[in-house]
Amino acid sequence: MPGSIVLGQNRTGTEALIDLPELLATRLLVQGNSGSGKSHLLRRLLEQTASLVQQVIVDPEGDFVTLADKYNHLVIDTDTQTEASLRTAGERARMHRASVILNLEHSEPDAQLRAVGAFLAGMFETPRAYWYPVLIVVDEAQLFAPVAGGDTSDEARRLSLSAMTNLMCRGRKRGMAGIIATQRLAKLAKNVAAEASNFLMGRTFLDIDMSRAADLLGMERRAAEAFRDLDRGQFMALGPALCRRPQRIKIGPVETASHAGGPELVPLEQPNLPPEELREMILQAPTEPPPRPRREPTAPKPDLITQLDHYGAQRSADEQATQATEENTPDPAQLWQIIADMVSETDAGYRPFATLYQDFQLRARLNGLPRTVLNMERFRRLLGTIRSGIDRERAQSAEWHDIEERANRLPDDMQAVFFLLARAAMDGLPCPDDAALARAYGTHSLGRARRQLHYLEECEAIILQTQGRQRRVAIIGPGWQTASD
């Protein structure tokens, strides 16, 4: 399937794929006891998608900071930041499309919750123009969306839980795809876990967690004990981005490693000291630490916001340089074909615009084109033109360019309907029926689709004439009219 990455292998030895555009639209839940391979799975997923989509990693233990060495992620140590700066940083990260690792390793538990709540809130409140696709990976998600209170304050817990709920429940329309990993489903807030449509369930031993995992995967309760037999790095997969039936997969290798290695068994060597000397050595009074050497003052490091602005400026310069040095100038026919292939898919008419734009960016990268080959405005215009049914040669005519200019004066969500009506009027075809208007508008509601005709008339883009059940539409400006339906 287009836009897929290799996650590992299934039982038959064939590649286990995950559909990235579908993952961006449907979210992912990873569960497994400590040592089951969750961090390895997340690292594999992050490495495979690092060059395809922006990433934000909530890292409570500092396990993923090594990704920055290879993929140039921006590491933010939360212990040196305020809530206000983190909130602003979350917004700036989306605006500049910076891949970020939120390192919580040196923060206290209460401060961790506040930091995550502030950063995700900033990302969530970013203006619509910057709703680019982003993978947000939250490791140990039960810490930030707990079922019950713990040692942290109620206020900090509410801030974090609210941000996590927004991420999983309302983030999709904003391009925010949540990937949450937890050791125990029983400790994770249900309204957060329930929004995921894709599942990767690793080794689990407690009955309550096995039963809940089996329920999420649609497995029978008697088959739940299979989770105890999974090896490290093996997961049961299910979901629209993974597979339609539960399937056991083995996660593939990774290129980077965590700073913290696993425990290794070493021989125990007994000290060759008498018990009295050993006791005196261990219990001797602590010595005063030597005074720290005086350090020469250094220039202060730029603050986080300055770093993000510099990252964005550097990224823009790099992208412009990439476009300027691109050996193969993007062929308009190639762009037209990529979008036409998307439009031809069965459910394309009802997918959100943000999801379609994500899909287009991924397909463009897979075809060797830069991510910025089309901005959102140009993509929306070309998408509406292709959806109208006009061919590419006629779309380059002066008459259609005039239609595009008129569409630019309309709200974004009404342009596709206007293109559909203009094409029908240009060819003297009957006015499109309610179902065609609904597909162009991206809704299943025929009544809502009909109302767009009145909105376009109020915007002085068309003239609507109705007689009984028949209706005709005239395009203001060119004067084209549809035939009676």
Automatic annotation (TrEMBL):
Question: What's a Pfam family in this record?
Answer: DUF87
Name the InterPro entries for this protein.
AAA+_ATPase, ATPase_Atu1862_pred, HerA-like, HerA_central, P-loop_NTPase
Name the segments for region: Disordered: 285-304
Annotated AAA+ ATPase domain ranges read 24-214
Recorded protein name is: GMP reductase
